[in-house]
Amino acid sequence: MHNLRQEGLFILHKFEVMYNQLDIFGGESSEQPGKRVEPRPERKPIRNPIPPAVVEEKEPSPAVHLNIPEDKELDSKQYYPISEVANMFNVNISLLRFWEKEFSILKPRKNKKGDRLFRPEDIRNLKLIYFLLKEKKYTIKGAKEYLKKGKKADDKFDTVEVLKNIRAMLLELKAGLS
């Protein structure tokens, strides 16, 4: 089997050399005396070192800690600059600009200079968008459809937020007991 493969590669290489030596317009060989074409080195097949049955299942990545203040604290300021909001969500500023273009519920104000200023309402909307895209792994299209459902979507999101807060509190209690 191995010899057949080598023989096939040799024939293929020989054909390639002959093809390259043909003069396309005249049909004559353009072989130069003394010039030898080196054969290509044999490529080794790429093999997966771990058989598929042995591949370990990945654990879900831990949720990124968001630095979003509570609602009372969030409402203490009227506007937040885009850099501050990006730090809250641990994302790039360009991603926030992209989400602004994609989702009509995001409407940050702009000052005379053109800087985006996010209201607490915008940050709550961003929180929902972040949840859908990053945590629930929705596509942009799927997240838009989810947001079109309106009140039902907000209710589900609020429920998830309350459950997350309860879970965090229970984890703190568990750590305190240890």
What would you say this structure looks like, in words?
- The protein has a three-stranded antiparallel sheet with strand order 1-3-2.
- It has seven helices and three strands, in the order ααβααββααα.
- The protein starts with a helix and ends with a helix.
- The protein is mainly alpha-helical and 178 residues long.
- The protein has two domains: 30 residues; 107 residues, Multidrug-efflux Transporter Regulator, Chain: A, Domain 2.
- The longest helix has 27 residues.
Q: Please, how many domains?
A: 2
User: Which value, in Å, is the CA radius of gyration?
Assistant: 31 Å
Strand content is under 5%
User: Topology as H/E string?
Assistant: HHEHHEEHHH
Q: Give me the side-by-side strand order of the main sheet.
A: 1-3-2
Q: Which CATH top level class of the largest domain fits?
A: Mainly Alpha
Distance between the termini: 64 Å
For the largest beta-sheet, the strand count, sense and barrel status come to: 3 strands, antiparallel
What fold name stands as the CATH topology of the largest domain?
A: Multidrug-efflux Transporter Regulator, Chain: A, Domain 2
With helices defined by DSSP (H or I, 4 residues minimum), what is the helix count?
Answer: 7
State the helical fraction.
Answer: 40-55%
Which regions have little confidence, pLDDT < 50, spanning 5+ residues? Answer: 25-30, 53-62
Number of E-state strands: 3
Structural class: mainly alpha
Mean pLDDT across the residues is 75
Name the shape in a single word.
elongated
* CATH architectural type of the largest domain: Orthogonal Bundle
